[in-house]
Amino acid sequence: MSPTGKPDDTPARKAFYDAIEPESMRALWSVMSGIITPEPKSDCLAFKWSYDSVRSRLLEAADLITAKEAERRVLILENPGLKGTSKVTTSLYAGIQCVMPGEVAPAHRHTQSALRFVLESAGGFTAVGGEKTEMAFGDFVITPNWEWHDHGNSSDAPIFWLDGLDIPVVQFLDASFAEGLGEDQQQITTPIGDSIARYGANMLPLGYEKAAPTSPIFNYPYARSREALEVMRRSDGWDPAHGLKMRYINPVDGGWAMPTIGTCLQLLPKGFDGAPYKSTDATVYVGVEGSGRAYIRDLRVDWEPRDVFVVPSWHELRFETDEDAVLFSYSDRPIQEKLGLFRDHRGNQ
Ligand code: 1HN
């Protein structure tokens, strides 16, 4: 901002600041350089959570509390730079949820929107707005805001998925509402697979009008998304920084699948030596297949399937791989784009 930076705190000025503080006033010039920074400054830190550690802590938690008593048996992935805030980045939340065989996570709804990215499931399911979907490894499942949702596990193995929510955004706006249904599971009124048949076959019902800001597709199955990347790898369209990176869309308008959270799946081929890239949307990544390295400013992250790592806003990021690798990621990019705030930059200047 000002080329001179913050004005000196002379004794007379300090006395003035102290005098106005009890009157709920603050001198802008004394704080301006801290709130209007020349580029993004964040307490959010680059960090990785190893799946094995989170998974074993969740199994410990399963001996302490049922999914029903907990309402949701989740370990929050709390950014070490944002302790006590339940945030993974300044604007988003991440957690890993576990449902044991036979358990249910009871029906409730809230104004926060959620995504699920399935990490392990032999027979997990979730129900949203009267429709049930099976959850399989790599599926991206949406819970739009204010829709009733409950989860269950009809297999004989624990199931795990990554939850991504816009909790800090809703908190910032003081717009949180939540309620329980009073029953474990909602009534199912729609056949399994209805939403993907209706909205996910490159067709829409004739006369369909957009009713909500969230995609009407409930589950984006991994098999389909992965196949798209596999077919595309034979042609061009490779990005020097991202490899092959596709965003999940709302088929109604081609926008992001969720209004507050942007989601992507990317393929990094064996031997990828990515170009440096930075953007204003702090991003949560989860390994899906293969392994690789992410260089995030000064931090080197070695990631494997199901590990979660976070890249803060405006931190230079570079990917390297020794084998084919797939990453799922999410960020607040849809919000920043709507507000004209999103910026990115390629190269290491
Ligand atoms: C929630 O409803 C779920 O439905 C998961 O699975 C995580 C974190 C905070 C608030 C609500 C779920 C949540 C959550």
How would you characterize this protein structure?
The structure is a single chain. This protein is α+β, with helices and mostly antiparallel strands. Helix content is 19%, strand content 31%. The strands form 5 sheets. Strands 1-19-16-21-14-13 form a 6-stranded antiparallel β-sheet. It has a 6-stranded antiparallel β-sheet with strand order 2-3-10-5-8-12. It has a 5-stranded antiparallel β-sheet with strand order 7-6-9-4-11. A hairpin with a 2-residue loop joins strand 6 and strand 7. The mean pLDDT is 97. The protein binds 1-hydroxynaphthalene-2-carboxylic acid. 1-hydroxynaphthalene-2-carboxylic acid binds next to strand 3, strand 4, strand 9 and strand 10.
